Amino acid sequence: MEEDTRNLIDEFKGLTNEEVVERLDEKRSALEVAIYNVFHDFNAGTIVRNANNFNVSCVHIVGRRKYNRRGAMCTDKYLTVKYWSDVQEFLSDQRARGREMVAIENNVADKYIKKFGQIEDKKFKQNTTLIFGSESDGLPEEILDACDDIREISSYGSTRSVNVGVASGVAMYEWAKQILHESLEDKAHE
Fold first, then answer.
1. From the CB of residue 28, how many other CB atoms can be counted at a distance below 10 Å?
2. How does pLDDT run across 11-32, given as a tens digit for each residue?
3. To 10 degrees, the CA torsion angle through 92, 97, 99, 103?
4. Which residues 6+ apart lie within 8 Å of 55 measured at CB?
5. CA 1 vs CA 4, 7, 58, 90, 169: distances in Å
6. What distances in angstroms separate CA 147 from CA 69, 101, 141, 169, one per listed residue?
7. Among 8, 32, 128, 147, whose CB has the most other CB atoms within 10 angstroms?
8. What pLDDT does residue 159 have?
9. 125, 102, 116: which is closest to 34 by C-alpha?
10. What would the pLDDT profile of 109-159 be if each residue is shown by its tens digit?
């Protein structure tokens, strides 16, 4: 038998891509992730790969459609990726489905400070969509204005921020730590 060299955990080795998706669908998290005009394709691919790792329900690519599938290590085959060329259509979809939109940003204008805080202080809701922008331009006002919350990741060194791909992993972990970990603890106590 030929060795399965796909980037999969052992439980999924030897299964078809469709079978992997079926198994993942059985335990999908409620988390969604949106990527707005992330210009470096490797960064967008990293976010998609992280989204697969946390088994998110959907990745929304808003604005620029292209992302580096190689950076995603083909993990996009195992999750839903939706493309939105129109920002307002994406935002309307989020509102209509009752999603809490949380921007992960490190450089916001004073007018957003009231919504702004550290990610470790955020009490996440299950139906959250984390929104990431490009490292140079960040998120536009039309997205920031629509967000329910804006959070940053603390920096303890001389660099003002982590790479957006890294930031996505940190933010998804913070959500999972609260929502998925608490859910597993509740099941263990039943």
1. 14
2. 999 999 999 999 999 999 999 9
3. -20
4. 24, 27, 28, 29, 79
5. 9, 18, 34, 45, 35
6. 28, 5, 10, 20
7. 128
8. 82
9. 102
10. 667 767 788 999 999 999 999 999 988 888 999 999 999 999 999 888 888
**DSSP secondary structure code for residue 66 in this structure:** -
Write the CB contacts of 177 (distance below 8 Å, at least 6 apart in sequence): none
Contact 85, 93 (CB under 8 A): no
Residue spans of the domains in the chain: they are 10-188
Q: How far apart, in whole angstroms, are the C-alpha atoms of residue 71 and residue 78? A: 15
Please identify which residue in the block is written with the tokens 């299950």.
126
CATH class of the domain defined by 10-188: alpha beta
- Amino acid at position 161, single letter: S
Position 34, amino acid: A
User: d(Cα 143, Cα 150) in Å, to the nearest integer?
Assistant: 10
What is the arrangement of strands in the sheet containing 128-133, beginning at the earlier edge strand? 80-84, 58-62, 32-36, 128-133, 100-104, 149-152, 116-118
158: its two tokens: 């001389």
Which token pair is 85?
């060329």
Bridge partners of 100, per DSSP, are 128
